[in-house]
Amino acid sequence: ETEEELRCALQYLTGKVSERLSLLKEQIKDSLVLLEAAVDFPEEEIFVDTDLVRRRIRGVMGTIEELLQSFYEGRAVKEGLELLIVGRPNVGKSSLLNALLRKDRAIVTPIPGTTRDLIEDVMYIKGIKVRVVDSCGIREPSDPVEEEGVRRVKERIGGVDLILFVLDGSEPYSEEDERILAILDGRKYITVVNKIDLPQGLQRDVLERRGVGWLEVSATNEVGIAELRERIYETLMGSQPMSNKILITNARHVEALKRTEDVLKKALEGLERGLPPEFSAFDLYEALHHLSELTGETAREDLIDEIFERFCIGK
User: Fold this and answer.
1) What is the pLDDT of residues 227-256, one digit of tens each?
2) What is the pTM of this model?
3) Domain range holding 37?
4) Domain count of the chain?
């Protein structure tokens, strides 16, 4: 996928989200009309079917929950997820970065410590934008520059979506490898055994005893890279292909929908407790207000007109 294709997809998603938000507002308004008619015109003795109102509110809340759950996938499409490559020096992290990106982004030499700072670039896997970050080797630093680089890597580990822990298949498992593995405890990571094109020295049984699974690649010869890209996608997004559902891609939408969901819960609780309808009506007005922050529409005048039309007030 290209940036242009993703841009077009996002424009389509934005239109679909607007349509869904407008539909949610109409569903809330339908319930609010019933409550407001009883509150504003008690002399008309209008019957309010509270069971119907509760069902409608639950339906709206269910749709909002689906939209909120779509944000992770939506963020992956719009902003991208972050992948950090870590390992001790000279295990082939930069070569792996270049192989994943399918271009020479990082300088590769046989000298340990060539990469001294974080190097970032972007790749796309099945419509998902992944920001790949190559890092300096994690070891006891030998100078202030390397020390700062190691500090930045450790700081970055806590905020990324996925980590590639790279081991050198041609060398024995080391204390440095063990220390890095300990840092990754509790994190989402994939262990990658690199340099399988060379005579092997890594004791796989050490990984097995620690319950660590791994994927074997040769970054230099691009062996196993396609499988690694697939594993990255599955770890980030699950084994199912991207859905065709409507996706929320904006954090502002998430906050407004959460506020809407909160006041809808209050409205529902009020109805279930048998409180006067004006309490739930107030909550539904607040729900409309929060959605209006996203759609830019107001509903008060439309509601009054609809009450008069639906219940023939004054006729």
Assistant:
1) 999 999 999 988 665 556 777 878 888 999
2) 0.66
3) 3-70+245-311
4) 2
